[in-house]
Amino acid sequence: MPVVPEPFALIVGRMDDGGEAGFLGALRRMGLRPETVTTKDRRAEASLIRVRFGSTSALIGRASAYALDLADPLHPATSQLASRLDETWRDAGRVWAVIPEAAGGPDTAGNLAMRLREFFKAMVLLIDLFDASHIFWAPARLWTDAPQFRNAIAEMLASGMPPVLHLIAFRRSDAPGGAIVRTRGLALFGGQEVEGRIPAGWTVAEMVRRLARLALDILLNGPVAAPRRLRGLDPGEWVSLTPVADEADGSGTVRVEFGSDL
Question: How confident is the model at residue 2 (pLDDT cuts 50, 70, 90)?
């Protein structure tokens, strides 16, 4: 499956949107200032609508076959959090693509984070408009429950903490020497993914809980620039972080090792 560097979301909603006039009217009442545009995008079918929220803008349209195939929940590369989609999820009229538009100039990490913050706030309004059941976040290839996503964004606005589990996928895989867990989607925000081998006796949930905290730190404070050793969650536990650059594509990985002094 293709790598998707550009962020976009899919919303699985109800079948009937009330027609284009009713749809545009609902967007206006929400203060999103919709306008029909002629922009073409492989992630959406023909007609697109631009909406504005704060300082950011996004395009909305019926999801294309490309986007639907990328989001296939049965594909082994796709991750799912919480509830599963039913077999009718991609029926005509149910799935919308929401695409954040690029800034006028190059994005810095801080500028991107602010744009996406506004984008996610607009997503909350669209979840209500479409009576959405599920959200797909393409950089992580991750499906999540729409009401849970909505609550996570509300928590972000109250506490400032990004909804890590709804934006980052944690993927377990087998490797020589034992299973590892690696993030997917974190590089969009900090230019790095996090990867660690699961220590003997740990569950995947225990590993994800720790890697999620490290991912949150990168989301809030930026990439890990040099090797570090930190205290872990449990007494006597420590965690070693080693950033490694990938010369092939310029991305980076933070290799994580857990240990204990007890």
Answer: very low
What lies within 8 Å, CB to CB, of 245 at 6+ separation is 251, 252
Helix (H) or strand (E) holding 135: strand 134-137
- Give the tokens for residue 205: 């949930």
Work out the pLDDT band at 249, boundaries 50, 70, 90: low
- The rounded mean pLDDT for the chain is 86
Q: Which two tokens stand for residue 15?
A: 């079948």
Q: What is the pLDDT of residue 105?
A: 53
Contact assessment for residue 48 and residue 64, using Cβ atoms and an 8 Å cutoff:
no
Question: Are the beta carbons of 141 and 71 closer than 8 angstroms?
Answer: yes
What are the C-alpha distances in Å from 138 to residues 80, 83, 91, 194, 258? 12, 18, 19, 18, 30
Write the secondary structure of 27-68 as one string of H (helix), E (strand) and C (coil).
HHHCCCCCEEECCCCCCECCCEEEEEECCEEEEEEEECHHHH
